Amino acid sequence: MTILGKVALVTGAGRGAGRAAALELGQAGFTVIAIDINPDSAARTAEAITQAGGRAEAQAVDVSQKMAVQTLIYDVLERYPRIDMLVCAAEITPGNSALKMDEGEWNRTLDVNLKGTFLCAQTVARAMIAARDTGPPETGGGLIVLVARDRAVPHAAVRAAREGLRGLAAALADEWKDSGLRVVALRAGEPVTAAIANI
To answer: Span 157-170, mean pLDDT?
Structure first.
């Protein structure tokens, strides 16, 4: 399997599990699109990859906004022939407990942590299927990884989203398997390269 020249998008790449995944993929030979809502954090991750001899660029995007996600993907596809891998690791934690948080804080947490993952996966999956249908016969379908962090967290909104991610990964894997796409859930800290096969 040749990784060189393949493109991987990583959301939440500015810190934590997302940054770790981006650095790992850069070291493995992927061209990494490091995505984070914080442009400085995304830039630091991309810079770390390029300083280590890899290829990367930074993009600042709020993954909970459908138009922003679609614009990003279309922009990437104007510069690269296809997207081979997506790692969804964006997550936020609200400041208030379940007793004190308001509806807006609950919605924002689920919008980023769960809906944002779906929007990214849906948009990238469409692009992957289109590339497979128009590419050479050996072209693989692509790989989508959802980072499913530890369930044992105290915050209700974060925990609800994490449980939802596991269900989402299983549902998308079932629905998209006939399209040649692989969708997997990995725990934070697991090497994302372990999931790579035939992309």
So the answer is: 94
Q: What is the DSSP string of 90-114?
A: -----SS-TTT--HHHHHHHHIIII
Whether the pLDDT of residue 159 is over 50: the answer is yes
Query: For strand 85-88 and strand 143-147, is the pairing parallel, antiparallel, or unpaired?
Result: parallel
**Helix, coil or strand: residue 181:** coil
What residues form DSSP beta bridges with 66? none
The 10s digit of each residue's pLDDT in 71-128 is 999 999 999 999 999 999 999 998 888 899 999 999 999 999 999 999 999 999 999 9
Q: Are 19 and 49 in contact (CB under 8 A)?
A: no
**More confident position, 55 or 190:** 55
Q: Which amino acid is at 57?
A: E
Task: Give the HSE-up count for residue 163: Cα atoms under 13 Å, Cβ half-sphere.
Answer: 8
Q: Could you give the CA distance from residue 64 to residue 48 in angstroms, rounded to a whole number?
A: 26
The superfamily (CATH) of domain 1-91+139-159+166-199 is: NAD(P)-binding Rossmann-like Domain (3.40.50.720)
Task: Determine whether 138 is exposed, middle or buried from the number of CB atoms within 10 Å of its CB (0-12, 13-18, 19+).
Answer: exposed
Per the model's pLDDT, the better-predicted residue between 199 and 159 turns out to be: 159
pLDDT for position 137: 47
